[in-house]
Amino acid sequence: MGFFPVSLQLAHRPCVVVGGGAVARRKVEGLLACEAAVTVISPRLDGELERLSRAGALRWLDREYREGDLAGAFLVIAATDDEAVQARVYAEAERDNLLLNVADVPKWCNLILPAVVRRGDLSLAVSTGGASPALAARLRRELEESYGDEYRLLLALLAGLRPLVIGRGGGHQVNCRCFKELVAADLAGWIRQGRWDLVLKHVEECIGSPEALAVVDRVKNEG
């Protein structure tokens, strides 16, 4: 069975995690990184989840899961090894057509959570469709080594330049050509080496406006 790769906008959307251990913590951390409104259902929480609950970062229902707990949820994660609870969560989510991930039980998932590397707004995701989370984790580590913090700054730079290019009114084809010219150079390598002079020169050649050069200075200072 194939899974369709997609990025979800979870900001402020209700997401439910059933379970309070280490697996649940990792899932919750990923959801909070996307600004989701997280509810955790478990009679116990691991230390970090308890800290997040005290800080108000999540809502904690201090009890076992009950049918009806998923009402209104956008996304559900069953992060418990209790097979009976997994089956009940699956039944409710399936009945109500909810997005569901059951940790380590691919047959009950309509949503697979990929291994993710985040560099600011850049997300690099690897999924094996649930066949081998260990391989996905290994590939994620390789991506972490290949794509460092310079890509966070690169994306911030390109995001700042984009409205300036579009605002020139050159039309779609002209804009696309400029965007391709921008990324054709080794901007990430120059940023990693601290060669902002080369970045500035390249941006000046591609765009040339004082506003564009100001974006380079701002991103450099943020780095």
UniProtKB/TrEMBL annotation:
It comes from the Bacteria. Pathway: Porphyrin-containing compound metabolism; siroheme biosynthesis; sirohydrochlorin from precorrin-2: step 1/1. InterPro entries: Met8-like, NAD(P)-bd_dom_sf, SirC_C, Sirohaem_synthase_central, Sirohaem_synthase_N. This is precorrin-2 dehydrogenase. Pfam families: NAD_binding_7, Sirohm_synth_M. GO terms for biological process: siroheme biosynthetic process. Its EC number is 1.3.1.76. The keyword DNA damage does not apply. Keywords: NAD, Oxidoreductase, Porphyrin biosynthesis. It comes from Desulfurivibrio alkaliphilus. Residues 119-145 form the Siroheme synthase central domain. GO terms for molecular function: ferrochelatase activity; precorrin-2 dehydrogenase activity. It catalyses: precorrin-2 + NAD(+) = sirohydrochlorin + NADH + 2 H(+).
